[in-house]
Amino acid sequence: FQVQMMQLMALSPIRWACGYLHQVHFMRSATVGAELNNDIIGRIASHQTRPLGIPMDWIQSSGWSCDKPDKIQDRWGGKNGPGNSFVCGTDQLFYLGIYFRFLCIIAILGTSKMKSTGGGAIIKG
Fold it and tell me: Where are the alpha helices (DSSP H) in the chain?
């Protein structure tokens, strides 16, 4: 059931964007723009961020970073530690956007064909 839910989550552009923003705001150094990467916030909010897939105490103790290659499915599923919702890049988000645009083009072409032929079948066979 967990694998199916991860596949369903992978279809959500909001999930990818939030995972990337979480990674940016929690993982980068404080001088680069990680406003939430400090010990005080880590101690105060760790019990609230861990269920959201942001295990800051584990990340800081294990030294995890986006430089270590691992599969997103393993990271989200918690294969090598607690579930980690971070997304290290935006490539998948762009691919998902291209895929959804392709589906929209197919739907628009099918709808326009049906309307132009008087409501007939999309594919004649």
Answer: 2-9, 13-27, 39-49, 56-62, 72-77, 91-116
DSSP 52: G
74, 80 Cβ separation under 8 angstroms: yes
Confidence (pTM)? 0.70
101: exposed, middle or buried (C-beta count within 10 Å: 0-12, 13-18, 19+)? exposed
Please count the residues of the chain. Answer: 125
Write the pLDDT tens digit of every residue in 52-87: 888 888 887 888 888 877 888 888 888 888 888 888
pLDDT digits (tens, 9 = 90+) for 14-61: 888 888 888 888 776 555 656 677 777 777 877 888 888 888 888 878
